[in-house]
Design a protein that fits this description.
This protein folds into three domains: about 10-120, OB fold (Dihydrolipoamide Acetyltransferase, E2P), CATH 2.40.50; about 130-285, 3-Layer(aba) Sandwich (Rossmann fold); about 400-450, no CATH class. About 45% of the residues lie in helices and about 20% in strands. It has 16 helices and 13 strands. It has a five-stranded mixed barrel. Strands 7-6-8-9-10 form a five-stranded parallel β-sheet, sandwiched between helices. Strand 12 (about 425-430) and strand 13 form a beta hairpin. Helix 6 packs parallel to helix 10 (about 275-285).
C-alpha cells in the first residue's frame, strides 16, 4: 500500500519520465528524414496495379496522376524522361501496372510513387483504348479510302521497316527474290517495347525524305512488317505517331503486322493491308514467270489475230475483185462508142464541106447578089442615122425649143415645178441662160413659161 501511495503522490512529469526513460527525442526534420529513409528502403522497387485517375501533363513534361482501386488512392509522378519513353499516353480509366518506388514529400507530410515503367494491365483495357483511338482517327478522316494510294505494279526499290534480326526480313527477301527480284532497302527499327513507335515513324519519314534521284534509291513502296505476338507486343503499331506518319507518307505503304487475325490501327491507315509479311511481298511484286507466260500467251494470241485479220481481208479483196468488171470489158464498150462517134463526125464534116462548097459555087455564079445585099444594108444604116438625129437634143433645140432645169439640174416639165424652183437654167441651141425668181413672182407664174421669160 505504501508503494502505491508513493506512486500516486508523484508529479505527472516525474511519472512520465519514469515510464519512458529511454525514448529519444527528434526534431520535425529528423523524423521526416527517418520516415523517408524507412519508406524508400522498404519500398525501393515495387509494382502497383491500379486505374489511372486525374492524369495531367505539366508544362515541364512531367506527368502527375493517381493510381486507385475501390478502397484507396496513391499519388504518383512520371518524370519527363520516363514519360517520353512510354509506349502509350497515360489516360484516365486505363488499368495499368506501374513499376517504381515510394518516396515521401516532407513539405506536406505525404508520400507518392515515382513511376519508372508503366504497362497496360489486361487485354480488355487495351481493346477499349484501341477502339477509342480507332474512332478518333476515323473521325479525322485518316482511314478514308479516298486517301489511299495505288501500289506500283513493278517497283524498282522496296523499302522495309522492321527488325534487322528477325525472321520477317528474311521471309520478305526470300519471297521477293522468288517472285520478281527487286532492290530491297531495309530501315532497321524496333518493333516492340519502349521507343519502337518513334523508330517506326522515323523510318517511314526517313524513306519519304530521301531525294528521288539521290545516291540512295528512294523506295517506290514501303512495307512495315512484324511477326505475330500479343496485343501488348504489337501495341507500337497502334500509336498515334505511327498512324500519322503512315497517313502523311507520299510513298504507298503496305502494312504486315502480326498474323492474319491480328488487326492494328496501322492496317486501317495503310494503303494496303497484308495478312502476313510474306503476303506483303506478294502484294509488292508480281510473279516474273507468270508475267512471261502471260506475255507469251498474249503474243501468240496477237500473232494469231493478226494472221486471221489479214486472211479475212484477203478474202474480202478477192470477193471485191470478182465483182469488178475487167478493164478490157470496160474499154471495149467505150472503144465501140468512140468508133461510132468518129464515123458520124466524118459524115458530118463531109456534109459540111459539101454545103460550103455549094454556097461558094453559088456566090461565084451570082456575084451581083453580094452587091445587092451590101447596098440594101447601107440604105438601112442611113435611115437609122436620120431617125437618130431627128430625136437628139441638138436637133430639137435647133428647131426652136429650149431645155429648162432647176437649180439641181432636174428637168422642169410644168409651171407647178417651175414655181417651186429658186432659179431656172434654160438651155438654147447656142447657150444657157439662168433666171432668178424672187418674191411672189414665182407664185404668179402662169401660162407659157417661155413667154414669161
Amino acid at each position: 500500500m505504501s508503494d502505491l501511495f508513493n506512486t500516486l503522490n508523484t508529479s505527472p512529469s516525474s511519472a512520465f519520465e519514469n515510464t519512458f526513460p529511454s525514448l529519444k527525442e527528434y526534431s520535425v526534420s529528423e523524423i521526416s528524414f527517418e520516415i523517408k529513409k524507412c519508406v524508400e528502403t522498404n519500398f525501393n522497387k515495387i509494382r502497383v496495379k491500379g486505374e489511372i485517375f486525374g492524369g495531367k501533363r505539366a508544362d515541364s513534361g512531367h506527368w502527375y496522376l493517381s493510381l486507385k482501386d475501390e478502397n484507396a488512392l496513391l499519388s504518383a509522378v512520371i518524370w519527363k524522361g520516363t514519360a517520353s519513353r512510354l509506349p502509350f499516353k497515360p489516360e484516365d480509366g486505363l488499368e495499368v501496372i506501374a513499376t517504381g518506388k515510394i518516396t515521401t514529400f516532407s513539405g506536406k507530410s505525404s508520400y507518392q510513387m515515382i513511376i519508372e515503367q508503366l504497362e497496360i494491365s489486361g487485354t480488355g483495357t487495351l481493346l477499349k483504348l484501341l477502339e477509342e483511338r480507332k474512332q478518333k482517327f476515323a473521325a479525322e478522316g485518316l482511314f478514308d479510302p479516298a486517301h489511299k494510294k495505288k501500289i506500283p505494279f513493278l517497283p524498282n526499290t522496296i523499302g522495309v521497316v522492321t527488325s534487322p534480326t528477325g525472321a520477317v526480313i528474311r521471309d520478305i527477301i526470300h519471297r521477293v527474290t522468288d517472285r520478281f527480284p527487286s532492290h530491297i532497302l531495309l530501315w532497321p527499327s524496333l518493333v516492340q517495347g519502349d521507343g519502337a513507335a518513334e523508330q517506326i515513324a522515323g523510318a517511314i519519314r526517313g524513306f519519304n525524305n530521301l531525294p528521288k534521284k539521290g545516291h540512295i534509291a528512294r523506295p517506290d513502296v514501303i512495307i512495315v512488317a512484324r511477326g505475330g505476338g500479343s496485343l501488348e507486343d504489337l501495341w507500337a503499331f497502334n500509336e498515334e505517331i505511327v498512324i500519322r506518319a503512315v497517313y502523311d507518307s507520299e510513298i504507298p505503304i503496305i502494312s504486315a503486322v502480326g498474323h492474319e487475325t491480328d488487326t492494328m490501327l496501322i492496317d486501317y491507315v495503310a494503303d494496303v493491308r497484308a495478312p502476313t509479311p510474306t503476303g506483303a511481298a506478294e502484294f509488292a511484286v508480281p510473279v516474273r514467270n507468270d508475267l512471261l507466260n502471260r506475255l507469251s500467251t498474249i503474243q501468240s494470241r496477237m500473232s494469231s489475230g493478226i494472221s486471221h485479220y489479214f486472211s479475212e481481208r484477203v478474202n474480202i479483196l478477192y470477193g471485191l475483185n470478182r465483182g469488178i468488171p475487167k478493164l478490157d470489158q470496160i474499154l471495149a464498150e467505150n472503144r465501140q462508142y468512140l468508133d461510132e462517134r468518129t464515123d458520124r463526125l466524118k459524115i458530118a464534116l463531109k456534109n459540111y464541106l459539101l454545103n460550103a462548097n455549094n454556097l461558094i459555087e453559088k456566090i461565084n455564079l451570082k456575084p451581083y447578089l453580094i452587091k445587092t445585099i451590101l447596098e440594101k444594108q447601107e440604105t438601112n444604116l442611113k435611115n437609122l442615122e436620120l431617125r437618130l438625129n431627128s430625136v437628139s437634143v441638138e436637133s430639137v433645140l435647133q428647131r426652136g425649143f429650149a431645155w429648162v432645169k432647176d437649180e439641181n439640174l432636174q428637168t422642169i416639165y410644168n409651171t407647178k415645178q417651175a414655181q417651186k424652183a429658186q432659179h431656172l437654167n434654160i438651155r438654147f441651141i447656142d447657150g444657157t441662160l439662168t433666171t432668178h425668181i424672187k418674191g411672189k413672182q414665182n407664185e404668179k407664174l402662169q401660162g407659157d413659161l417661155f413667154d414669161l421669160l
